[in-house]
Amino acid sequence: MRLTLLLICSFFFSLRERVLLCYTRGMKRLSLLLIVVSMFALCACAEGFSAAPVSTAFLADSTSPAPSPTPEPPKVIAVFGVEEDGAFLSGIRGAAAQTGIEILPMGSNLSALATFAPDGDAVAIVYLSGEQVTLPEANVPVYVFSAEGQGVNSGMPYLGYDASGSIQIALESAITYPPHLAPVRMIGLFSGESSAAYTLWSAAKAEGRVFSKQEFFADGSEVALADWLNDAFSHYYPGMLDAVYAETGALAVAAADILAALGRDDIEVFSAGADAGSQQKLSPILVYVAGPNLADAGARCFAQALKLLAGEPTESGILLPESFWYSQKP
Fold it and tell me: What are 222-257's pLDDT values in tens digits?
């Protein structure tokens, strides 16, 4: 650009000298020539000094939007061997309320454990009750609650209920029940004469704390329990008998049902067993059951199942009996 300007200016001054020399040749031609040259010089200078146009490039945003993350399958704890409305399952749900873990009730069919294979992380909690069973091989880790002290598969972690103390706390509850005065007048219902419950009962009789009116032994009776109870209760009018002490839940429930059918609410039944749904059948007659705290058992099993989900070692444990009294609902 500078070179062009110098050449133009040099040409202009050279032309000026020629013009002066040729002044006499005619003013008109000179004026015209000067005008043309001046216009040429101005155009050239204007072109030289004009700013080059600036082009602005806009780059298209080639960044693609990030894909939406695929939601992970929820962590699942499946519960086998219990019904929907049980205290055990309620204990599990209560413990899981703030964890985000999905609790999946699977009903009482334990054979379904063999085919349970969900997507994602999952473990199973199994509630064992009734007869001794061998659990099927599972596709997921398993934690067991042995509700009646049953054995479990080798190597399988579990919480076991130890009912051995229930006969003691049930008998003490019957003797110390506020309306009762020692010796307490009772009928005793036992699985057999050699049972630990009868041994304990016999010791209380010897100590003068129990006045045994009648005793029933399920393994040696030739009379059906219902017939025996109807006959026994007919011998005692109100005020003659304080309570019934039953070794098992089944014996206690049978006694309570007979008393209710007879309209006898003057006799309380105390159960040392939680079988036969005795905890769920507490009433003004069946006033006491010694048994496992199923809600607590559910919470404890859930805590161990969480460890299984995390791949951590679990612990087996023992659940001791507690006292459950009838409480009238408001």
Answer: 999 999 999 999 999 999 999 999 999 999 999 999
